[in-house]
Amino acid sequence: MGQKVNPLGIRLGITRDWTSRWYAGKRQFPVHVNTDFRVREFLKRRLAEASVSRILIERAAKKVNITIQTARPGIVIGKKGEDIEKLRQETAALLGMPMNDVRLNIAEIRKPELDAQLVGDSIAQQIEKRVMFRRAMKRAVMSTMRSGALGVKVRVSGRLNGSEIARTEWYREGRIPLHTFRADIDYGLSEAHTTYGVIGVKVWIFKGEVFDKSELAQQAGEAEAAAAPSTPLAPAAPPPVTPPAPEVAPRSDLMA
Questions:
Q1: 10: buried, middle or exposed (CB in 10 Å: 19+, 13-18, 0-12)?
Q2: Cβ atoms 69, 55 nearer than 8 A
Q3: Closest by alpha carbon to 166, among 143, 133, 125?
């Protein structure tokens, strides 16, 4: 009946990890969830130009470690680290904690074309700049597949090109096995705020299947066994060695 599930949430604990990692009791749990949400909204708003994909929050021993995954770490850090220190101070004030207990880590995304959130943000920014949505979608699909993805699907919904009736259009290349739990599928949702309304952008990127180490080792062993010959070959006989000819000493009577 068309029930949908988030591709990231259904794979938690299987191939993906939580973006917030901490443990709390019944009283502190809703407080921490609300604080994490406010911190993420604040950082994404402040770092709107830095291509931030994901923000990981980890709490341990009354300290908070925040990892910002971005494609432009230089914008986040700033000159001589001035911007990151100011951002750390504001984040500590939002958390209500001392500055020494808050740590900001910057993780660089090497291939932004393989990050679904960054691809969705790029398409949304192009639509806001009045670029034709079909051109933006096709360009994103081509660049993602060229970067090594096994499949990509892009879907936009809303008043496309300012039409009176909202509709949905999508492009897909490769395969997107949403029902396979071990499939490494990245999902991103972004919004383009235009003069005629909000246009939603969804991106799915399939990067391959994730296996356990034991299963990978077993598959490697089976592949080696299949590649090896069934009957071992006998070692080749060494070539015959011919002894050197004996040296003959010259006779003195013949030379005379």
A1: middle
A2: yes
A3: 133
- CA distances from residue 115 to 20, 62, 69 in whole angstroms, order as listed: 19, 32, 10
pTM score, whole prediction = 0.78
- Locate the DSSP E strands across 71-131: 102-108
Alpha-carbon distance 251 to 256, whole Å? 9
Q: What is the DSSP string of 16-78?
A: B--SEE----TTHHHHHHHHHHHHHHHHHHHTTTTTEEEEEEEEETTEEEEEEEES-HHHHH-
Q: Are 7 and 187 in contact (CB under 8 A)?
A: yes
pLDDT in tens, the chain (256 residues): 567 899 999 999 888 899 999 999 999 999 999 999 999 999 999 998 889 999 999 998 889 999 999 999 888 888 877 888 889 999 999 988 888 899 999 999 999 999 999 999 999 999 999 999 999 999 999 999 999 999 999 999 999 999 999 999 999 999 999 999 999 999 999 999 999 999 999 999 999 998 875 665 666 666 666 655 544 555 556 666 666 666 655 555 545 4
The two tokens of residue 234 are: 């006998």
- Nearest alpha carbon to residue 154 among 109, 199, 193: 199
Give the number of other CB atoms < 10 A from CB of residue 169: 12
Cα separation, 202 vs 192, whole angstroms: 11
φ, ψ of residue 128 to 5 degrees: the values are -65, -30
Place of tokens 């009176």: 164
Write down the H helix ranges in 209-256: 213-227, 252-255
